[in-house]
Amino acid sequence: MNTPKALLTALLVPLGATLAVAPAASAATPPAPPAASASAVAAASVGPGEAAAAALRSPEAALGRAAHPLRTTDPRGGLADLRPFGRMVGDARVVGLGEATHSSHEFLTVKHRILRYLVEEKGFRAFALEAPWSTGLRLDAYLLRGEGDLKRIMDEEFQGTYRWWNNAEYRDLLQWMRAYNVEHPDDPVRFVGDDGGFAGAELYDEVSAYAAAARPELAPRLTELYQGLRPATDAETYVDDYLSKPVAERRELAERTGRAVDLLKQRPGTGADADAHAWAVQHATAIHQMTTLFAFDWDDPQGVAGAMLHRDRIMAENVAWWQQQTGDKIVLAAHNSHIALRTYVPGTYPKVQGDFLREQLGGGYLSVGLTFGRGSFNAFGHDGGVHRFTVGPAEPGTTEHTLDRVRHRDFMVDLRNAPAAARAWLATPHTVKNIGATYPGIADAPRIRLAQAHDIVLHLRQVEAARMLP
Predict the structure, then answer these.
(1) Which is nearest to 393 in space by CA: 438, 433, 442?
(2) How far apart are CA 334 and CA 95, in angstroms?
(3) pLDDT tens across 357-372, in order?
(4) Model pTM?
(5) Can you name the residues that pair with 126 across neighbouring β-strands?
(6) Three-state secondary-structure class, residue 116
(7) Which helix (H) or strand (E) holds 117?
(8) What is d(CA 420, CA 412) in angstroms, rounded to the nearest whole number?
(9) What are the pLDDT digits (tens) for 59-101?
(10) How much is the CA Rg of the chain, to the nearest whole Å?
(11) For the chain, first and last CA: distance in Å?
(12) Distance CA 75, CA 441 (A)
């Protein structure tokens, strides 16, 4: 087993993180045989008239009455059909938009369309992505001031398992954000990278610059603590080399970066320095988040679960920090299994980002799961290569089979206000498509209670693979 490569894969395999690490210890329980739908059972046991009445009480019929059709997933389409979604959002300050695969075209374009709506109609001013904090700084500088070349930034930052973001759909979204900021320089849309899988050189430079200007007595000590950590290679090579170090060495590095955070926190910023101090501490925290993530023993299943708990916690903390520091309302993009209110697979993911955000923000956090019935996506195969996979229609008894039977092709439905006829179905565990960076994985079809996992579901009947950039 090549442990560094296994860890790289783990960073973006939402519920298959241990596929290459400890499959025997983490294998998911096979899903139960598909059950017949409630309407089919009712129809089989009653007469024609009663069967028709039962059909009207079926979960798919009830959801159909509560659902709002989505006219298009094209980001350039009109926005009128998203007004019901705006009412569902209400006063939420962070809206988590999920995806059932990491690389399907329609999941990404509908996020773009919803971002456009929330920016133009609901005052949202930040887009957070499952990407490193330092990546966010580079993209934010491009969006705000046009610094750098977008293609180069995406090529350099979206490496390794983050390569799924190097696609035409996200390029179009970022270009729209840049164009919006050119037209609205005094009220821009910002970019946030909330993940801890890499800490770029920008973070070390920002911390050093702050110390040199505001706390010169700390500069030599910070230089000593960060010795050998500032990246001098591309991200993928840096992480691969870092994870080749013995666990004991990685833990010592995490202890050093923790001391750097503590040094900066010893004297809080005041007055004009308060904002600069807060940002410097956050940048140092992002460095420490990475070293802590990689200090776990990934050869131990307990270590894997601990690492995944740490990762989801820090992603939530970074989003909450940005929202509280800037006041921006945020669209958060990640896999369904991260933005959910409850973990999909407790053994591997004890608690997830959406659960942490609900604790921190209460009703200020909204979880929107995105599901699909059939279609294609890009993912790593077990040979390590990138492949295009296709899955057929949803099987009877699955979540998507019922959602596919709702009268709208594509739609959104608020599960918090679901009709009585749908509540029992929403509260019952059903398998759901949950495809990570590697396919097939060990948790492609976990059983979840939909109403406990998400506030809103946006269902697409069919999706196609995203357009990866060379």
Answers:
(1) 433
(2) 11
(3) 999 999 999 999 999 9
(4) 0.90
(5) 190, 330
(6) helix
(7) helix 105-122
(8) 17
(9) 999 999 999 999 999 999 899 999 999 999 999 999 999 999 9
(10) 23
(11) 28
(12) 31
